[in-house]
Design brief:
Number of strands: 6
Number of domains: 2
CATH topology of the largest domain: f41 fragment of flagellin, N-terminal domain
Distance between the termini: 24 Å
CATH class of the largest domain: Mainly Alpha
CATH architecture of the largest domain: Up-down Bundle
Shape: rod-shaped
Strand order of the largest sheet: 1-2
Radius of gyration: 39 Å
Helix content: 55-70%
Number of helices: 7
Largest sheet: 2 strands, antiparallel
Length: 339
């Protein structure tokens, strides 16, 4: 078969162009560290990498949400801890007021401090996170759940229902807080009997203060040590229509029980917060492990073997240089050189 000089030239140039394309591709792989730059180069691997990247993005979003929820819960835990301190102080005041040496004036002074403790408890119930959202605001966390009415000296409740659930992992959600009602106004009157009703701590503390403010006859008479009401399901209504020391004694007896119920309830709330914080920590570890595995699989799927790529690049450069030299030599051939 006869091969023309022009055909030899075309084949040589075509071979060099193909080698140049392969060399450029290898150079891009070495520069980027990736096996392919476009999905068309390896559609299957590109689709797999895309799916894994989406999974990694979801895990990253879960981590961001976990950090936010963790921060809110820790701030709520601090608020609840401070609320426990408020109730403990009120309990100390109630015990101190239950003394035969107390006068109407001294009890009124104790009531004034309890009024201030009510305001402190309300401020804790209106605690905000770093973004200005109310921790106990429920779905309406842009509105303060409580306000204080100076005229009635009572805490007013605003709407704050709902508990927001936040996804922290595949198929796993956690509440990012508790409503003010659940923490401060729905204290079980009896831990084992739901029928006993619920205690509103704001109302209870205000009633204690009112009872202590009421002038009592026989103010210097000994007060009988308070005892737990015989009927545990008795409604814990701390209002008192009497003006006697005996009436005050009954209020103080119930008050200590109510405060103990409140302290137990806040302890349960802190436990619930701690459980959720542990869940976030566990899920964060799971997310980190999954992210590490996916990142490794994605790298195996799209990253090059850098040693192999450098070796291939060296061979392709040598091959292209050899082809170029051969082309130059062939181009110089002519029958006139042999005449």
């Amino acid at each position: 078969m006869r091969i023309s000089t022009q055909q030899i030239y075309r084949q040589s140039i075509g071979n060099m162009m193909e080698q140049q394309i392969q060399l450029t591709k290898t150079q891009q792989q070495v520069a980027t560290g990736k096996r392919f730059q476009n999905a068309s180069e390896d559609p299957v691997a590109a689709q797999q990498s895309l799916a894994m990247q989406r999974s990694l993005d979801r895990l990253a979003q879960y981590d961001k949400q976990s950090v936010l929820v963790d921060g809110r819960l820790r701030e709520e835990e601090n608020a609840v801890t401070s609320s426990v301190q408020v109730l403990q102080r009120v309990r100390e005041l109630v015990v101190g007021a239950n003394n035969g040496t107390q006068s109407n004036d001294s009890r009124a002074a104790t009531a004034a401090e309890i009024r201030e403790q009510v305001k402190s408890l309300m401020q804790l119930a209106n605690s905000q996170d770093g973004n200005g959202h109310y921790l106990f605001g429920g779905y309406q966390d842009d509105t303060a759940p409580y306000s204080f009415d100076d005229a009635s000296q009572a805490v007013q409740t605003n709407t704050h229902a709902g508990q927001r659930l936040v996804s922290i992992g595949p198929g796993r959600q956690v509440a990012d807080g508790d409503t003010g009602a659940a923490v401060f106004q729905q204290v079980p009157a009896n831990a084992t009997d739901v029928a006993a009703g619920q205690i509103d701590l704001f109302t209870a503390l205000s009633q204690i203060a009112t009872a202590l403010e009421t002038p009592r006859s026989g103010g210097l008479e000994p007060v009988v040590p308070p005892t737990v009401p015989a009927d545990p399901t008795e409604p814990y209504n701390l209002s008192d229509s009497t003006t006697t020391v005996d009436g005050l004694n009954k209020v103080l007896a119930k008050s200590l029980v109510v405060l103990d119920r409140g302290l137990d309830h806040l302890s349960d709330v802190r436990t619930s917060i701690g459980v959720r914080l542990n869940q976030i920590d566990q899920q964060s570890e799971t997310n980190a492990s999954s992210s590490l595995q996916l990142s490794a699989l994605k790298a195996d799927n799209e990253d090059i073997d850098i040693a192999e790529a450098y070796s291939r690049l060296s061979l392709q450069i040598s091959g292209l240089q050899a082809a170029q030299k051969a082309y130059v030599q062939v181009q110089g051939l002519s029958l006139f050189n042999y005449l």
